[in-house]
Write a structure and sequence with these properties.
Number of domains: 1
Bound molecules: iron/sulfur cluster
CATH architecture: Alpha-Beta Barrel
Oligomer: single chain
Structural class: alpha/beta
Strand content: 5-15%
Distance between the termini: 32 Å
Low-confidence stretches: none
Radius of gyration: 19 Å
Shape: globular
Mean pLDDT: 96
CATH class: Alpha Beta
Number of helices: 12
């Protein structure tokens, strides 16, 4: 195995140095079981996770819980749901205690006087037509009004198979409202007709994602190695799935042999006691899982295997940088 220093020139080594010091320890929290939308393909509702536990209603218990999470070493709270903005007091319990990222559908504006620099990721599932079909409304019309020009918000654009060939218009719409965008792929958890990936579609979407990055480098937060890994499900000849996934809750991880995994990662339900299997849903078929965060974490936890060549290590650095930008550990 080669060493980092032997593989990198000065410029790459400097980039490596910045991320190597970060030591990110994330966990994921369901802030609520409720949402103001009901999207077809939402893993939370389709898998019944919204009924897995009764929500903790006592705010003081949330505050105590968050402090305990900090004490066990978590330094990045990723808030999901349901829709976290329905319970801003709970969001605030996290925000006041540790670096916090809030995933939202953007229909409610996070008040910036209360959460000045909290990173907000706004979900978007395509153009007006796809959003109507899958989410019941054109969410962009509202979310773009709520967050236009916000330096601490970006779109999390879930590309669906139907979007292939039509994504550039969306990127321009996002750029026009002064926001950035990260790309991920739909996992069709509810088997909606017409929204399945095929090998050809995945090949095409990879090329399209690469083109978007080349054409809109200041708007698209991504890298080509991530596009390769998420569209092929392959990394260094290995195949993504249950035996490789890094985003499994530590206490529920009985895999043998143990793959490289996120240290101390837990996905908590909103009763603050129940743990979900992983960062998405326990009913999802891992062989079709396209979760973007799980794929990028897969790369990140496997640094050692990227020490075979300079190109492999540079790929690893780019994915790590992308993650660090998305969660505000380094600037855009
Ligand atoms: S907005 Fe998010 S949490 Fe709500 S239904 Fe849609 S995917 Fe699920
Ligand atoms: S569903 Fe996806 S995120 Fe969950 S364990 Fe399987 S591969 Fe990992």
């Amino acid at each position: 195995m080669k060493t980092v220093s032997s593989l990198l020139d000065t410029a790459w080594h400097e980039r490596y140095r910045k991320i190597a010091a970060l030591n990110i320890r994330s966990s994921i929290y369901d802030v609520t079981n409720r949402c103001n939308l009901r999207c077809k393909g939402c893993f939370f509702f389709s898998s019944g996770e919204h009924e897995a536990a009764a929500e903790e209603m006592d705010l003081e218990k949330w505050r105590t819980f968050v402090q305990k999470e900090k004490d066990r070493g978590v330094n990045l709270a990723i808030l999901i749901g349901g829709e976290p903005t329905l319970y801003l007091d709970r969001v605030e319990a996290f925000f006041r205690t540790m670096p916090t990222y809030c995933a939202t559908n953007g229909q409610i504006r996070v008040p910036r006087d209360r959460f000045p620099d909290m990173m907000v990721g706004i979900s978007l599932w395509g153009d007006e037509e796809d959003e109507e079909a899958l989410r019941g409304k054109d969410t962009f019309a509202v979310s773009s009004r709520n967050y236009a020009g916000d330096p601490n918000a970006y779109y999390l654009y879930t590309i669906t198979p139907k979007q292939v060939g039509r994504t550039e218009r969306i990127i321009r719409k996002i750029e026009d409202v002064g926001l950035k965008v990260h790309l991920q792929l739909l996992t069709n958890d509810e088997q909606v007709d017409g929204f399945f990936w095929t090998k050809d579609k995945l090949k095409d979407v990879r090329a399209e994602m690469d083109d978007l990055l080349d054409s809109y480098p200041r708007t698209v937060i991504s890298c080509k190695y991530y596009h390769e890994v998420i569209t092929t499900g392959k990394m260094l000849g290995r195949t993504f799935g249950w035996s490789e996934c890094p985003s499994v809750t530590e206490q529920l991880d009985d895999r043998n042999p143990q793959p490289k995994r996120l240290i101390r990662f837990i996905r908590w339900a909103s009763d603050l006691q129940t743990r979900h299997r992983c960062c998405t849903s326990a009913t999802r078929d891992c062989s079709t899982c396209k979760d973007g965060a799980a794929h990028m974490s897969w790369v990140m936890v496997n640094k050692r295997d990227h020490l075979a060549s300079a190109k492999d290590l540079q790929n690893w650095i780019e994915v790590y940088e992308m993650f660090a930008k998305l969660y505000r550990f380094i600037p855009w």
